[in-house]
Design a protein that fits this description.
Layout (H helix, E strand, L loop, with lengths): L1 H4 L6 E10 L10 H13 L8 E3 L6 E9 L2 E3 L2 H19 L8 E8 L5 E9 L7 H9 L28
Length: about 170
Amino acid sequence: MADFAGVPSAGKVPLSVKVRVVSGCFHREHSPQAYKLIDEFVQSHDLGRDRPRIEEHESGPEILLFAAAAAGVLNISAATMNLITAIVRARTEGIRKGDRPSDPLEIIVRRIDSGGSYAEETVLRVPFGQEIDAGKIAAAISRPIVPPPEPARPRKKKAEAGPKAGKKPA
């Protein structure tokens, strides 16, 4: 994500939306039926001017994009929300057609702000077979992401007073 975040985009925040299986694998080798559906979706839909980049990982696809941020809330295009929804639905349909395993999915939002701070939050957990729509995913992703905690500041010790008046230092 750091390489992707380095590409400047005026008024937008680099963002990663990871669709990760809780346990096991969610990649082409173990989920060929799901990836067939994902590929069909990508080929048949216009993903918008700011076309998101899809990175494949063993634990599931990661969508890299630039999102508008207003008042601390991330705004992701409807086309990208539909892509995320299609990936979750493809996983369910793939399992019904024989893909393994069937562990729940998590949707994780990651971002790097302009100061280089990294934040990650699991925003939604989707058990196998649970119906999901773009609205539910949008609500989970669009809520404010929790910023990383500020490092604790060391407390200043009170300055020790010098030698007491009238006493000579030893």
